[in-house]
Specification:
Length: about 200
């Protein structure tokens, strides 16, 4: 009889990553469409005004209180900020998915630190991508918003943090962290390579 090489933990773990990635892509696409719609609205309004069309807004004694282009520009900025917050939220979710899964694989408690979890998972024969440590540093910076955490991130993943915490220790580090879609996709890739799949049994890495 041929031995089956099937891992239910791996199936559950990888499916969780796929679900998170699908959620991110759907949400990011919706926000991107929203931003594009607002940009078109701004361009159309500016063109209308430049062509002698009616201005939309409110004026008092010849001074502009607000105008439609200002409203649209504010909404565009808000949409861009929402995309950044979405990226950060999904990176937190992906890492916590790995963390919770690793506790189930290893039987370790919820207070176990990252390095011990990673080592215990490797001892089971599960792969752990070495870049997962930079994801941990990113997550800790986003969660704890401290210069100490930011210093670790600056050393391990400088591309997402362009300010040296040694020179400016009192910033809002959650806000300073800058992420593109490529960073989110890299985190998904790292997560996939940091645990079992359905074909990988313990001890058969």
């Amino acid at each position: 009889m041929v031995a089956l090489n099937f891992n239910m933990q791996g199936l559950s773990y990888q499916q969780g990553i796929e679900n998170l990635e699908a959620g991110f892509m759907t949400s990011a696409a919706a926000l991107s469409d929203r931003r594009a719609q607002l940009l078109r609205g701004l361009e159309e309004y500016v063109a209308t005004v430049e062509g002698g069309g009616e201005r939309i807004g409110e004026w008092e004694d010849g001074h502009r209180l607000w105008e439609q282009d200002q409203v649209l520009e504010m909404q565009i900025d808000d949409a861009e900020a929402s995309v950044m917050d979405l990226r950060k939220a999904y990176i937190l979710a992906v890492y916590h998915h790995w963390e919770r899964s690793a506790r189930r694989w290893t039987g370790l408690s919820g207070w176990t630190k990252h390095q011990r979890l990673a080592t215990a998972a490797r001892d089971l024969g599960y792969p752990i991508d070495e870049r997962l440590e930079r994801v941990r540093d990113l997550v800790n910076t986003l969660k704890h918003n401290s210069a100490d955490r930011a210093s670790q991130l600056f050393a391990s993943w400088p591309g997402v943090l362009n300010v040296d915490p040694e020179t400016r220790p009192y910033l809002d580090w959650y806000g300073v962290v800058t992420l593109g879609d490529r960073h989110v996709q890299e985190v998904f890739e790292i997560a996939r390579l940091s645990g079992p799949d359905a074909r990988l049994m313990p001890g058969r890495a």
